């Protein structure tokens, strides 16, 4: 567990994302939920032993951020409206109950008995939603919840001014491989500029260690590297399959290794990134041509 503010903590060593919490004078506010069921239950028990958990704010719809929601049934779940709409689709993409049991038997046997347990729902999506911004108050803390699309369409940042901290979800991967498999890269770059404008000392990324705003330029450069790489291949008429067949110099685009037990997805991720960016760049060029015409 890493302290990131006077009353703010994040866990950077779990499988999946960095779940976090803030201790207020009226209970806890969580940012994302632990991916592994046993970690989620232990977190809930640890926090509720001292005070109630008032809110659980999801920063995005990917399974490593939302699957642990099931184990926080007495807490108000908060999310951007698009996240509420796609919650179950993304959760199902993370695997059926049988798929999860099979995975946990191999990687986390302590979690197996919690998968499909009758005390916990299969899905626990946001019940409190917002479109652009939402401000919540818990005790002596303010939570400015901001829609920052980029890594995903519902991507959300949570700015806590009393702590000098912003929780960005996966718009920031600090010194671990960035996932651009479904991103809008131009929205992502805009989100990074908007995050840079916030008055904070600490950024808690979706993956990797907490960092300062100085890292945002490097994160933007990684996004720009990937766009430039795919764009150059498009200019010579290459398809995604041809780009991948020729071989992708991944570390020239992003020098960092994949993190948090996700190494088995490393090669597949490259294919997803190339296909996503190829389509988005082509679509953008076509849209610009249509407007010019």
Task: Summarize the SSE layout with pairings.
Layout: E1 2-5, E2 8-10, E3 20-24, E4 27-31, H1 37-48, E5 53-57, H2 63-66, E6 76-80, H3 81-93, H4 97-107, E7 128-130, E8 133-138, E9 141-147, E10 156-160, E11 165-174, H5 185-196, E12 202-208, H6 216-235, H7 240-246, H8 250-253, H9 266-292
How many alpha or pi helices? 9
Helix percent reads 25-40%
Fill in the CATH topology of the largest domain: Metallo-beta-lactamase, Chain A
Instruction: State the shape.
Output: globular
How would you characterize the overall build of this protein?
- Strand 10 and strand 11 (165-174) form a beta hairpin.
- The chain starts with a strand and ends with a helix.
- The chain has 293 residues and is α/β, with parallel strands linked by helices.
- The strands form two sheets. Strands 1-2-3-4-5-6-7 form a seven-stranded mixed β-sheet. A five-stranded mixed β-sheet has the order 8-9-10-11-12, with helices on one face.
- It has helices spanning 37-48, 63-66, 81-93, 97-107, 185-196, 216-235, 240-246, 250-253, 266-292; strands at residues 2-5, 8-10, 20-24, 27-31, 53-57, 76-80, 128-130, 133-138, 141-147, 156-160, 165-174, 202-208.
- Helix 7 crosses helix 9.
- The protein contains nine helices and twelve strands.
- It has two domains: 2-215, Ribonuclease Z/Hydroxyacylglutathione hydrolase-like (Metallo-beta-lactamase, Chain A, 4-Layer Sandwich), CATH 3.60.15.10; 220-292.
- The protein is globular, with a radius of gyration of 19 Å.
